[in-house]
Amino acid sequence: MSVPGHYESDVWGRFFYSFLRKGELIMSKNLVHYDIVGSFLRPESLKKARAEFAAKKISQDELTKVENAEITKLVEKEREVGLKIVTDGEFRRSYWHLDTFWGFEGIKHTKQEHGYIFHDEETRNDSAQVEGKIKFNGDHPDLAAFKFLKTLTDGTDVIPRQSIPSPAQCYAELVRGKENIEAVNKFYDNETDLLDDVAKAYRDLILALYEAGCRDVKLDDCTWGMVVDDDFWSLMTEQGFDRDELQEKYLYVNNEALKDLPEDLRTSTHICRGNYHSTWAAKGGYGPVAKYVFAQENVEAFYLEFDNERSGNFDPIKEVPADKEVVLGIITSKDPELEKEEDVINRIKEASQFHELENLSLSTQCGFASTEEGNQLTEDEQWKKIKLVIDTANKVWK
Fold it and tell me: Where do the Cobalamin-independent methionine synthase MetE C-terminal/archaeal domain residues begin and end (predicted)?
């Protein structure tokens, strides 16, 4: 199973080629140095509309009108606080990942006996299951969502980002549990064909997003966050799984989806350990996966979770190539308590021992509502966290 080599690309609006020296083209990175992961707490009007739609009290068109109105207000607020990359808050989604999977041909919405098991809570029990050959058929909810977002940013100084769950995350869901594996086996004779179809569906979606004007795509990915958890892997080993083999599959399917993309499309990945209703699913530092994902995944930036001791130390980021950006998720999105700016600055300095300061940036550790339930803080507290990110970054990088 071959893995493509490193793929270089420019970043529209942020990276540009600055000057020639000794006949060589030198890339200058004008990073903003502050960012967000993407999801925002759902406004009450949106929660109400989604509940009414689920109860068949309003139509899809009526729900879409509410979504459009709230996304419009959100983007205005994002610009107002000073964000340079904006999202739609994932307001049209129930989950950060499953909605995208359901949008592909050959994947259906199912229920399992149990949801995902987090530290002290179990999620809803939705899942995604193979029902045919997987493909992108030209029509996808994420594509429609981006097209609306772009109408709100055209003519402005901000970049619209589309976040999608990683191909590895899709593969992991499709083989989660006996029933899902049995469904895969009905349509795929071998796992390589499954991985290739998932990768192609994703690559086709990414290219469709590009054609719609998207120049910033982020892959959200909890698979690596599960791999680092030794307790989780003690159970997986008993079931016959091999850690290195699984990492090779994750890396392969992600990189296949990312190969030969347009040069002016910025790609990044956010890697965390679960974010549901302010709780978490896995623990452990990035060390066990660094030589795979940090060293070899063909993205230009890594958004990483470092908000507490459960996330480990900064040492593994030394495996990230020197020319790539590491976005430090130091400020938690799970807890309303506001971090002390001095403490955040000290942690950034600590991280700069392992990756050049100029290629570091700051963000919250994750989104504020990876699912529509949202984390346990208020909208006001959410925006205070984002302001802290921006203010701190402006002091560190001036």
Answer: 37-95, 196-372
